[in-house]
Amino acid sequence: MHDNPEPSTLSPEFCPKGFKRAHALDNEAKELGFYWLHAEQILTQISSETQEIRQALEQKESLERVTEEIGDLLHSVMGLCYFLNLSPEAILESSLNKFEKRFSIVKELMTARGLKTLKGKAHEALALWEEAKKAGAAGED
What we know:
Order of helices and strands: HHHHH
Structural class: mainly alpha
Number of strands: 0
Strand content: under 5%
CATH architecture of the largest domain: Orthogonal Bundle
Radius of gyration: 19 Å
Shape: extended
Number of domains: 2
CATH superfamily of the largest domain: MazG-like
Helix content: over 70%
């Protein structure tokens, strides 16, 4: 895996407030010697946070508790981005662009099939999403 104990060199100037704060805290922690040694450690933390969310939901814990765990997950994912010297904002924007393209294809497929909604049709919605992923991948060549 990628080793990176150095502070992130990303410029947070265009990042939302929370991203800037996470970036600053991450760099401050690194300067004091509190940092991840390997990306695998962060991936383990991400898995742990995901499990904690799952448990909180299964045990029907408070929304406050679930929110706290989701925040921990987001912070861990952002930590992985910074560790790899990647911009979480740019990654999110790219992911949203990909989702938007696929969702546009889903809407086209729905129109072509005379579907006005997919409410209550989870299986059909997932099938259309998979079809859109394949169509999008074919169109990217």
